[in-house]
Amino acid sequence: MKLLLFPLLLLASACGMLTTADSQQPTLKTVQLSGSVHKPYCGGAKPHPDIASGYNEALSFEKVAILRGTSYTDGMPVFKEVQLDESGKITLQLEKGNYMLMLSDKFLSLEDFMNENGSIENEHYRLKDPDCFKQWKTTVDLYFTVESDTLIAFQQKAKCWVGTNPCLEYVGPPAP
Q: Which residue among 66, 68, 87, 99 is least enclosed by CB atoms within 10 Å?
């Protein structure tokens, strides 16, 4: 009887340790993020129907910040900063939960943003109200929830002649 009891107790305690170890380990899920930008047709001549709707381009080597939660507040810590590959993709391991994605440029000061992106204003371009940049910096680009392994597509929309900068206006001559 003692010989049978000892292996059962050993097995029960081993199962209990495995259960405790599993409950202390966070469950990571595989998240595949794909980023692109939709660029509209900006030419003057009537285009072929395939070209008229514009095209998608990968957000190659774009840096993005991932934050935890469902609501952004200024000064919130960045959970993870990553860079997309040449094809605008990255695979991450994240715990279950709610996340926000923001372009890393939004965490730069206006001066650093201008230094990295060059002089914006000239005779054909004008910056909108200075508060536009402040509002853009606090706008979340994508909210997502991780429940299981998942694919997430993130797409920005570009405008003719100003790209994805919402604080820049084209004031030059119209397209031919």
A: 87
